[in-house]
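STRUCTURE:
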């Protein structure tokens, strides 16, 4: 059973697509959001959840006070589950998009993203994840101080970061490896 960990929808259950997804465990989501709370990046954030699956990561952000959340998945079944989850939770400011992650991030958003989740199938090649990060590094894609959470298999190589980006943290949870990355912040003079 997958459920929202905390916030306005805390404890509510989520539907999960019957196949083709690997939902982030509740334990890992709780750890991710604990770190994101430390970064103070969730409240009022503009959030992008790529490879959304059930929408658990983006919906967790919405439950915890994100201002706007976009759930993106290419699988019709996953998109329908996301829509049902949004409706059943009654969270506002969440939209669901059927598109390939690569195509979606190729168009700059009207408002830069503050928080991005990249949680693809583990068999997605590293070069594809690196391409998503490169697209997010385009001027106007993410806000200053944005955090991008990349979830991969522990056997995967670390993501190759675009020039001017840094690793904020890295943590393994069993088979899951989570990278927190983002644009380098200019240090005050």
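SEQUENCE:
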């Amino acid at each position: 059973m997958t459920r929202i960990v905390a916030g306005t929808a805390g404890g509510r259950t989520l539907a999960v697509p019957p196949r083709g997804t690997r939902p982030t465990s509740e334990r890992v989501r709780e750890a991710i959001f604990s770190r994101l709370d430390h970064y103070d990046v969730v409240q009022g954030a503009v959030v992008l959840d790529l490879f959304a699956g059930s929408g658990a990561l983006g919906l967790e952000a919405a439950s915890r006070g994100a201002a706007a959340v976009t759930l993106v998945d290419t699988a019709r079944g996953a998109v329908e589950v996301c829509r049902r989850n949004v409706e059943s939770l009654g969270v506002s400011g969440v939209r669901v998009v059927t598109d390939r992650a690569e195509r979606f991030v190729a168009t700059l958003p009207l408002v830069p993203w503050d928080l991005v989740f990249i949680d693809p199938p583990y068999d997605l090649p590293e070069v594809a994840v690196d391409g998503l990060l490169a697209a997010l590094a385009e001027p106007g894609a993410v806000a200053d101080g944005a955090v991008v959470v990349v979830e991969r298999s522990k056997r995967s190589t670390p993501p190759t970061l675009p020039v001017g980006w840094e690793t904020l943290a890295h943590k393994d949870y069993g088979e899951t490896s989570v990278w927190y990355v983002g644009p380098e912040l200019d240090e005050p003079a």
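REMARK: The mean pLDDT is 92.
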